C-alpha cells in the first residue's frame, strides 16, 4: 500500500548543499533542471532550499525537508573531502549507521586505477559508506553513487552535486526508482506558454483577468506573468482529471486579448518569426542601425539558417557613415538631425538600394546617457520600415537607461516588422 | 542601541518568490548576486529559499525567514498582477495594514504617461500600497519600489524580482539603508576580482595553484574560479586582521600567471578597453562582421560615449554584400571561400577604406549548426585586424553550438584587438 494520495502530485522538496552556492560564487542549476524534469512526471516542487556545508544547518534543513516533502532530493555533499557531510548527517538523523558497501569499494578501485593511480586514495573510501537499508543508485559519470532511502512514508534521494553526474543518475536510476515508489501518482499539470511583446504587464493583466474570469471559474486552472525587457511571457496551467479541457478553455478565453501581442514563434523569438515571414515570400532583409549598433542584426543572425532571408546591414554610428554608405543627404541631417523621421526614411531607402533588399529597417535614437535634449530626450528612437507592402516611419520613446533603451528598441523594431509583414498592422506611407 | 552583535557578520536570509522559479522555468540569479554583493559588506548568507506564489507557503517561508535572519531580503511578488502577493502577505504577517503612498501614485502616473498610456492602469495601483511604518526604496529602473521594514530586532527588505530593478534598488537605496540599520557590523572579507579571457579554467588553475602556494600558506586567504563564455573571473579574498596585506600577497603571487590574460578595464569589459586604447590615439574603428552578425558592434556601442572612437560597421552576412560593399574580389571568394584568410583580409581592408577608419576588424566563420565541412568544421572562424601598427589575420576554432561559437568569437575578437592595440601582442603581417 502506498502512503501517498494517488489523486494529487507528490510534493517534492529540493535541497542543494554547498558553501559555493550560498556565497553566490556558483549558481545552482540542478534544482531548476530537476523541477522541469519531474513536474511532468507528477511531482510538484514545494520548496527549493540552499544551505552551506556546515553540519548544524544541514541537519536542520534535512529534518525540515523530510517534514514537508513526500519526496526529498538533495544535491551535493557526497564527495570525498572533509566538507562533504550529507551522508553522515542523513545517517545520524535517521539513525541508520553507515556500512561499507563492497561493490562500491570495488568500483572505486577500478575507477582510480583506470585514472593511473595505484589504488583508491584513502579519503575516497568515504564514498563507499551507505546508510543501513539504503539502496545505491549507480553513477555512470563519476565515482559517488546516489542513495535512495525509504523512511516511514517519506522517500529521500541523495545525489552528488556535479551537474553531469546529478543528471545521469536521475535519468538512469532515480526515475525508475520513483516509478516503483509512487506507482499510482496523479498526472502532472498540463501547461502552455504564450510569449507576448509590446504591452506592459499591468495593462495586459488589466485586460486579461476579466477575460479569463468570463464564464465563471475553472477548477484546477492557473496562470502566471513573467515580465522581461523583451516582453511578458504567460504560462497557463491546469491540473486534475479535466486538465486538457480546462487548458483549452483558458486559451480560448485569453485569445482575443493576446492576439495583437502574441509572438508567433514556438521559441518566443521575434527574430525567428520575422525571418519566417520573409523567407516564405523570398524577401530579403537589410538593416541600417544607429543607436542599436548591430543588436537587431545580432538577433536575426542568432537564428540558425538566417542567411536564407538576411543579407546584412550597416551599423551607421557616425553621421559620415550615414552619408557615405547610406547616401543620406547632408541637408536632411543638418535640417532634422540624425534622430528624425526624414533621416530614418533615407537610411532605410539607402540600405535597401545598397543591398538590393526587399525589406529594409532603420533605427536611429538617443540611447543615452548623454546626447539628450528637451526636444529629443534620452529614450527617443525613430524607426523606418520599407517593404513591397509599403513604407512607414514612426517614433517611440523608451524608458530606462542605455542598455534598456537599446534592448527595448531592438525588440520593438522586430515586433513592428513582424506585425507589418504578417499583415496585422497595415504598412502605410 | 543596535540589537546586533557588532563583532560578527549579520546573518542574511534570502527568499526568492515565484512559480516560475519553483517550476524551474527560470533560474534565480538575484540570490547569488545579492550574496556576492553583501558578503564583502559584512553579511553572511544562512539560507537561500525559493517558494512559489501561493499564499500559505509564502506566509510560512516569511515567518521562518524572520526567525532565522537578522536581515531578510525577498525577491519577487511585488508587481501588479494577481499572483503578486508578497506585499499583502507581509502586511498580514506583521499586522501592518497597507496604506496608499501618494508619492508612488504620482510616480506611477508619470511613468505610464511617459510610455504613452492615458494614465495608470487600475491593477498597477496595487504597487502604491505600503505596509504601515515601512520605508520605500525608489526603483530607478521600474515601477514597483522596494520596501524596508524594521520589525523588533529583525530587518526586512522586499524587492521586485526583475533583475535590473532588483540590482538597481540594492545599489542605490538598499545598501545605504543597511549602513544606517547596521552601523557597527563586523567587516566582511576584503576581495579583488580579476577578469581574464583566452584561457580555460583547468589550464589556469593548473598554473595558478602552484604559484599561489609558493612561499607557504596564507592565513585567511581564499580564491574561487567562475568560468563563463567570456572568460574566467577570479575572486581572491582574505579575512581577519591582516586581510589587506594577505590579499596583496595573493595578488602578487598570481600576477605572473594572470598578466597575459587579464582584462584591463575596471568593469571587466573588453569593449571599454578597446575603445579607450583607440580613443587615446584618436584612432577610429570600423568592423566587417559575418558570422558574429553585429555582435562585436553591439558590444562596442553598449559602452557610453563609444561614438568617440567607433564609426560603424558592415554586417556582411551574404557574400554579395562582401563583394558589393566591402569590395572583396569574387575570385577570392570562389578560390578560398568566405571563411578564409584572404577573404577576411580583404574585408578588413574594404571596410577601412569605406569608412576611412584607422582600425578595422573583420570576422568570418562557420557558426553552425549547418555549413560545416571536414576542412572547415562548425566553430572555425577567421579574423583580420588592420591598424597603423600593421595588419594580421588568423584562424581560431571554438567549441560549442551556434550561440557559444558566436559569443566566444566576439569576445576573442575584442581580446585580440585590445592586446594588439595595447602592444602586448605585436601586430605583424
Structural descriptors:
homodimer; 429 residues; alpha/beta; 6-stranded mixed beta sheet; 5-stranded mixed beta sheet; 16 strands; 38% helix
The oligomeric state of the chains shown is homodimer
Structural class of chain A: alpha/beta
Which shape of chain A, going by the Cα principal axes? Answer: elongated
Q: How much strand of chain A?
A: 15-25%
Low-confidence stretches of chain A: none
Helix content of chain A: 25-40%
Q: Could you spell the SSE succession of chain A in H and E letters?
A: EHHEHEHEHEEEEHEHEEHHEHEHHHEEEH
Largest binding interface between chains: A-B, 88 and 93 residues
How would a crystallographer describe the biggest sheet of chain A?
6 strands, mixed
Strand order of the largest sheet of chain A: 2-1-3-8-7-6
Mean pLDDT of chain A: 90
Secondary structure tally: strands of chain A: 16
Distance linking N and C termini of chain A: 72 Å
How many helices of chain A does DSSP assign?
14
What does this structure look like?
The structure is a homodimer of 429-residue chains. With 429 residues, chain A is an alpha/beta fold. The first copy, chain A, is 38% helix and 23% strand. Chain A has helices at residues 19-22, 30-38, 55-68, 86-94, 102-114, 163-181, 201-213, 243-258, 270-280, 295-301, 319-324, 330-336, 341-355, 402-422; strands at 10-17, 43-51, 71-75, 98-100, 129-131, 135-137, 146-151, 154-159, 190-195, 221-228, 231-238, 285-289, 310-316, 359-365, 380-387, 390-397. In chain A, the strands form 4 sheets. A 6-stranded mixed β-sheet of chain A has the order 2-1-3-8-7-6, sandwiched between helices. A 5-stranded mixed β-sheet of chain A has the order 13-12-14-15-16, with helices on both faces. In chain A, helix 3 packs across helix 4, helix 7 (201-213) crosses helix 8 (243-258) and helix 9 runs parallel beside helix 14 (402-422). Chain A is elongated, with a radius of gyration of 29 Å. The mean pLDDT of chain A is 90. At the A-B interface, helix 1, helix 2, strand 2, helix 7 and strand 10 of A face helix 1, helix 2, strand 2, helix 5 and helix 10 of B. Strand 2 of chain A pairs antiparallel with strand 2 of chain B, so a sheet runs across the interface.
Amino acid at each position: 500500500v502506498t502512503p501517498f494520495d494517488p489523486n494529487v502530485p507528490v510534493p517534492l522538496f529540493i535541497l542543494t548543499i554547498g558553501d559555493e552556492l550560498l556565497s553566490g560564487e556558483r549558481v545552482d542549476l540542478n534544482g531548476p533542471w530537476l523541477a522541469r524534469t519531474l513536474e511532468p512526471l507528477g511531482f510538484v516542487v514545494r520548496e527549493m532550499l540552499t544551505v552551506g556545508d556546515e553540519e548544524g544547518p544541514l541537519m536542520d534543513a534535512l529534518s525540515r525537508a523530510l517534514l514537508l516533502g513526500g519526496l526529498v532530493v538533495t544535491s551535493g555533499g557526497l564527495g570525498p573531502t572533509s566538507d562533504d557531510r550529507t551522508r553522515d548527517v542523513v545517517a545520524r538523523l535517521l539513525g541508520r549507521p553507515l556500512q561499507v558497501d563492497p561493490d562500491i569499494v570495488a568500483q572505486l578501485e577500478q575507477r582510480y586505477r583506470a585514472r593511473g593511480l595505484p589504488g583508491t586514495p584513502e579519503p575516497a573510501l568515504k564514498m563507499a559508506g551507505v546508510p543501513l537499508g539504503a539502496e545505491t543508485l549507480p553513477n555512470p559519470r563519476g565515482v559517488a553513487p546516489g542513495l535512495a532511502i525509504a523512511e516511514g512514508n517519506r522517500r529521500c534521494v541523495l545525489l552528488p552535486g556535479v551537474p553531469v553526474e546529478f543528471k545521469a543518475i536521475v535519468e538512469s536510476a532515480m526515475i525508475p526508482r520513483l516509478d516503483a515508489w509512487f506507482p499510482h501518482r496523479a498526472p502532472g499539470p498540463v501547461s502552455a506558454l504564450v510569449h507576448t511583446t509590446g504591452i506592459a504587464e499591468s495593462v495586459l493583466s488589466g485586460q486579461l483577468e476579466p477575460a479569463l474570469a468570463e464564464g465563471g471559474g475553472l477548477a484546477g486552472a492557473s496562470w502566471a506573468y513573467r515580465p522581461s525587457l523583451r516582453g511578458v511571457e504567460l504560462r497557463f496551467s491546469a491540473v486534475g482529471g479535466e486538465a486538457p479541457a480546462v487548458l483549452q478553455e483558458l486559451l480560448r478565453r485569453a485569445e482575443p486579448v493576446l492576439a495583437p501581442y502574441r509572438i508567433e514563434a514556438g521559441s518566443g523569438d521575434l527574430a525567428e518569426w520575422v525571418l519566417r515571414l520573409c523567407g516564405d515570400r523570398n524577401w530579403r532583409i537589410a538593416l541600417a542601425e544607429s543607436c542599436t549598433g548591430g543588436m537587431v542584426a545580432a538577433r536575426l543572425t542568432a537564428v540558425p539558417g538566417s542567411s536564407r532571408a538576411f543579407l546584412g546591414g550597416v551599423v551607421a554610428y557616425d553621421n559620415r557613415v550615414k552619408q557615405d554608405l547610406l547616401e543620406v543627404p547632408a541637408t536632411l541631417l543638418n535640417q532634422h538631425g540624425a534622430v528624425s523621421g526624414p533621416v530614418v526614411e533615407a537610411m532605410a531607402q539607402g540600405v535597401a538600394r545598397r543591398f538590393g533588399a526587399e525589406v529594409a529597417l532603420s533605427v536611429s535614437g538617443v540611447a543615452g546617457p548623454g546626447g539628450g535634449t528637451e526636444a529629443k530626450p534620452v529614450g527617443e528612437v525613430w524607426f523606418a520600415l520599407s517593404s513591397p507592402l509599403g513604407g512607414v516611419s514612426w517614433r517611440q520613446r523608451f524608458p530606462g537607461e542605455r542598455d534598456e533603451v537599446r534592448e527595448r528598441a531592438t525588440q520593438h523594431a522586430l515586433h513592428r516588422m513582424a506585425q507589418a509583414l504578417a499583415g496585422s498592422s497595415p504598412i502605410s506611407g
